[in-house]
Amino acid sequence: MNNLSTGLTFKRGLQLKNRLVVAPMTTKMSFFDGVITNDEIDYYALRTGEVGAFITAAANVHEEGKGWDGELGVYDDRFIPGLSKLAAAIKKNHTKAILQIFHAGRMTDSKVLHGLQPVAPSAVAAERPDAQIPRELTEEEIWGILESFKKATERAIKAGFDGVEIHGANTYLIQQFFSPHSNRRTDDWGGSLEKRVRFINELVDGVTEVVDQSGVKDFVVGYRFSPEEYEEPGIRLSDTLFLVDLLSKKPLDYLHLSVNNYRNHSVSDGFKEKPIIEYIKETIKDRLPLIGVGDVRNGVDAKEILATADLVAVGRAMLIDPHWAQKVLDGQDHLIRTELSHYDQEDLRISNGVWGFLEGMMPERLK
Ligand SMILES: Cc1cc2nc3c(=O)[nH]c(=O)nc-3n(C[C@H](O)[C@H](O)[C@H](O)COP(=O)(O)O)c2cc1C
Question: Which of 151, 224, 229, 339 is the most buried (most CB within 10 A)?
Fold first, then answer.
């Protein structure tokens, strides 16, 4: 079993002081144009220093990839000064700073995009209320987006981050290329499983090449994915295991499973014997470290997840208690804060957007 306080060294040399990671969480605190605010810096500073690594909120690599207001931007060099402040704020007491990079694809709307129609692999709307029909990307635009992920990686290096995490999860553009629901293309970017994985292949190769050719030391590249979709057609766990095997052969530093609860079982027949995370770990076969996540509330949960995964990411519990990590490392689970009142919002530096979302997502006992 991986002990919580044991360090970990990634392939590219970066060392983590322990196995705890802050999960990427949108803050909805950036300025309207994607520049980081001082309040947002305070939000990160409050929660850093105890964990091994801190993965930032998703930052959009392309202007047309903005998913919501208050989102962090990394699509232009003008973001580098603010991102440098963010990296410096996170890198306290040897905590490593990882920038999550993404493009929302069809999971946005023309209001957020100031009149522009969202773009996606195909002109198919997401199955959610009021979803807009996106515009199908041209081949040239696809190459342009791949390029923007590379540029974002260069900016992360310049800003002093310790790594980037490619956000291939949670139904955004990268996942949209892999999904048979959102990708109905009949060219080389869609159709068979092998063609639907092409975007991810090009993307991972492009980003890892940028890092390896830049000469930067100890800078990691991770990849986050969601295991399955409920839509018909949609990504099934067997598709994801194919993807995980492919990614395990790439020069990546880690894989990061995105699920709401680490105990989740698959909805696919044939994969119901054990939690999804165990199928993922078996497929990776120790080629890369795996980050597990989902409803980790205390040290007992963290240790349980580490029986399978190599690292544990914690989201909501770190919003409620910024010193969750130290309490868990010290074996002081009973001191973890589990309740919120409306008076806490300012002290915890949580924006209105996330506060409402958090209340909606919280188990009854935490409300
Ligand atoms: C407020 C909030 C914002 C989130 N934003 C992101 C995000 O930007 N990128 C991402 O990959 N996941 C995001 N997530 C998902 C978390 O990374 C995590 O997978 C999920 O919350 C489950 O972990 P938890 O139970 O420890 O919170 C977000 C979750 C929350 C609660």
Answer: 224
